[in-house]
Each structure stands twice: as C-alpha cells, then as structure tokens.
Design a protein that fits this description.
This protein is α/β, with parallel strands linked by helices and 258 residues long. The protein has a domain at 71-242: NAD(P)-binding Rossmann-like Domain (Rossmann fold, 3-Layer(aba) Sandwich), CATH 3.40.50. The protein has helices spanning 19-30, 42-55, 70-79, 106-131, 155-174, 194-198, 203-209, 218-229, and strands at 10-14, 34-39, 60-64, 87-90, 137-142, 180-187, 239-242. The chain has a 7-stranded parallel β-sheet with strand order 3-2-1-4-5-6-7, sandwiched between helices. It is globular. It binds 2-hydroxyethylsulfonic acid. 2-hydroxyethylsulfonic acid (8X3) is lined by residues 144-146, 154, 188-189, 250.
Length: 258
C-alpha cells in the first residue's frame, strides 16, 4: 500500500494535552513530524514534549492556550516563532451537559460555541496564510457523528459539530486550486475525558456512556488521522466516519449488559 512520508513536516495540534489530541501528537511524532502543541494544561504538554522528544527525532513547542478566548489565540499564534505549519489538527472541543436545551445552562451552551466554533475558525484563519505556503497543507477537523444526527440533549453540541462540518466542507471547496487538503473526521463513542467533561466530573454517568460494549479509544482516531495524512499527494479524504463495532449510529449502540 502506498504511504506518503510526512516526516519533517510541522503540525499544530489544538487540545493536545489529553484524549484524541494527545494520541494524535504521539502518532505525528512517531512519523517524524515536528509539533506545536496547544492546550490549557501546560504541565501535561511539558511532560508529553519531554517524552516524545526523547523517543523520536522531533522538535516540539508547547503553548498554554484556552480556546474559548479568541484574544488569547491571537496572542499565542503571534508568539510562535516558526509558523511554517503544514498540518493543522483542529481537535480542541467539548460538550457540556446533556439536558434539554431549555433546561441546560446558557453559559455551557455559549462555551461550546466559543471553543468548538469560534476557537476553531479563529485558529484556522490565523494559521491559513502559513498553511497556504506549504506544499503539503492539510487541515483535519475533529467533527463527530453528532454532526449528522440530532439527539435529545445534544442541541448545541450537535449544532457546533455541524458547524465544523460545513466549515470544513466549504473551505475544501475554496481551496481546490491550492495544495491544501481538508478532512473532517467524525468519530462516534470514543472513551476519553469527553464524557467526564460533559457530565462535569460525574464519573458514574461518564462510565455508563461506554458500558456494555467496546468503545473507540483515542488511539483509534489517531490511527484514522494517520491514514488521511499519509495518502498520496493527489488523494484527499474529505470525510471519515468511525464507530465502534457495536455502534450503528450516534445514538444506537448494542450493549451487552449481562
Ligand atoms: C461525541 C459523540 O455521540 O457523544 O462526539 O455525541 S456523541
């Protein structure tokens, strides 16, 4: 099978301190890709940087960044010395709450919009001039099966992921004459901190999401990201949906509760 060598390229990963972002950073480093890792939890990024630089021949820069604050994103990007970014992994995102929209906190709703939508388009806009200079530009957006399937308790989360999807699809059209690919990755149930964050630390509720079946893990999604990044230069994967074997759609999961 043909596989493009992506070593020596530079990737920016948002939300890289845990879950899919961290797994993507590990996968990229193992491919010899230099990294700019951004997240709020800088101590986690520090230890990830140390680990990966020891293990692989890569250079890693880390940035403490809250993706709900657009002014911080502007400052952070400004502070990056080498902005010659080839790959952008738009991973930072979250769900907060699963109550009916009109019962859920409005602040939670706005926070999802800030991080999942505003943060993503601001970061992409700021990095775009550099990505456009690359011969191997690639923007990978972490969307979700929730982008395609509405569910009760997901009004804002589903809407933000649809936003990501349409944004990605539109810029792919805008970039057809440029050497920049755009891929939307749409995972189903991935066992990360996602549900713990959504249920505000309620471990039991979070664990129940992944009970009775084998869910996806962050490494599975990093594996899918690796696949889309290493295709031949003329091949663009526009969208990839990944579910657990026992998951049929965003909300239909077969659970063996015996
Ligand atoms: C997360 C998938 O089904 O919890 O993106 O909304 S779901």
């Amino acid at each position: 099978m043909y596989r493009e060598d992506i070593s020596g390229r530079l990737a920016f990963v948002s939300g890289a301190s845990a879950g899919i972002g961290e797994a993507a950073a590990r996968m990229l480093a193992s491919n010899g890709v230099n990294l700019i890792l951004a997240a709020r939890r800088i101590e986690r990024l520090e230890s990830l940087k140390n680990q990966l630089e020891k293990e692989y021949d890569v250079k890693i820069n880390i940035i403490k960044l809250d993706f709900s604050k657009t002014e911080d994103i502007v400052k952070a990007v400004d502070s990056i010395e080498n902005k010659n970014i080839d790959i952008l992994i738009n991973n930072a995102g979250l769900a907060l709450g699963k109550d009916l929209y009109y019962n859920n906190s409005l602040e939670d709703a706005l926070q999802m919009v800030r991080v999942n939508c505003e943060g993503l388009i601001v970061l992409t806009r700021l990095l775009m001039p550099y990505i456009l200079k690359s011969k191997y530009g690639h923007i990978v957006n972490l969307s979700s099966t929730a982008a395609d399937e509405a569910y009760s308790g997901g009004a804002i989360y589903c809407a933000t992921k649809s936003f990501v999807e349409m944004f990605g699809d539109s810029i792919r059209v805008e970039l057809i004459d440029k050497p920049v690919k755009v891929t939307n990755i749409k995972p189903g149930a991935v066992n990360t901190e996602f549900s713990t964050v959504r249920f505000k630390g309620d471990k039991e509720k979070a664990d129940n999401v992944y009970k009775g079946f084998i869910p996806l893990y962050a490494e599975d999604i990093a594996d899918n990201i690796e696949y889309v990044l290493t295709r031949r230069s003329h091949v663009q994967i526009s969208s990839m949906t990944i579910m657990a074997e026992n998951q049929g759609s965003a909300t239909i999961i077969h659970r063996d509760n015996k």
